[in-house]
Amino acid sequence: MIIPAKTVERLIVYRRLLGRGKRVNVFSHELGQLANVTAVQVRRDLMTAGFSGSPRRGYVVADLMDRLTEILDRPEGHNAALVGVGNLGLSLLSYFSVRHDRIKVAAAFDADPAKVCRVVSGCRCYDVRELPARAAELDISIGIIAVPAGSAQAAADALVEAGIKGILNFAPVPLRTPPEVLVEQVDIMRALEKVAHFAKRQREE
Amino acid sequence: MIIPAKTVERLIVYRRLLGRGKRVNVFSHELGQLANVTAVQVRRDLMTAGFSGSPRRGYVVADLMDRLTEILDRPEGHNAALVGVGNLGLSLLSYFSVRHDRIKVAAAFDADPAKVCRVVSGCRCYDVRELPARAAELDISIGIIAVPAGSAQAAADALVEAGIKGILNFAPVPLRTPPEVLVEQVDIMRALEKVAHFAKRQREE
DNA sequence: GCCTGTGAAGCTATTCACAGCT
DNA sequence: AGCTGTGAATAGCTTCACAGGC
User: Fold this and answer.
1) B63 is near strand D: CB distance < 7 Å
2) Is the pTM here over 0.90, yes or no?
3) CA B170, C1' D5: Å apart?
């Protein structure tokens, strides 16, 4: 079953929202209110996820959580490689190290020899040239790019070369990758400029 | 003229890409290659932006930059308020303080008295209760939320109350705001989980 | 009556296909 | 010949409207 990207995003949010709060069952309109989407959207999403509820009691939270986890997670979890251990990279490392059950940053890489071999937040930092070897050794399945714009494409190439199928890119440049690799762009500066544009537009109206 | 959100996002990228590199003119397929979108998409976007080129020489970069700036920026610039001066807030402060010409984080706010009154990256930190007063005084037009999930809605309410029309939200919770306020969600953990899901899916196929 | 499940409609975004310019 | 501009077609996503169950 293939689930569209936007639906996946919402499923992640649903799971997170249900994680807190010990409800036994939940109605689509309740979950919708929490997630800020319509009740129909919730029902569609859960239908797409192959999950169903009952008219009387809505959705059984525990079962829904199981189904979402089945869809979203891999039982063995994921090991991620962080490329770029500068300011941003270190922030991300501490951000991600609040243990996510299933995703662990297993190794960090940097081109700067001064940063190599240090251990930060329980994560060893290697020379970026070791990426292919370590990726195989540590069973890395996802990459996180936190290098300056100029080195981002090279980092992506190295990750692709190492067989990674998913990349989270914080560098403010579009990456060129083969189609079977998913790149999720997190472009903070663009997000800020977008907000600025809409704030301006709102004032003009 | 109202420009769809997705188009705005790409226009921001186009401007950024054209900023580097001193080209005099550019063809849609070139810009498309840089931005990783099709040439038609570029032409549509520029058409939507009310800009036109010539078959002979493509688009004149200097004029295009002017047009994009006219659409995206406000001549007086924007003052932003950062709410939440924890780990994430401080990272963002230093990230944004690499001077963006038109957007400046003019004040920071936190509920923790220990953080109030400090000056970080040239930005004064106030008690969050002063937000309405300072927002008016400093002509704040956009808000950045970097507080823990539990306080995010309160921060959003305070910003809305202060008349802000655009919010950049880093807290991993959907915000409930009136429809004239644009909320741009930057959900890093969700992005990571999304990548993980697709990496898993890729392996399964 | 109030809920879920879902075909069909509606809306938004992207791509096709080609006319028109130089 | 090679480019831009754009109506029309297509694809993707969301909402409507309502049938069916408890």
Assistant:
1) no
2) yes
3) 39
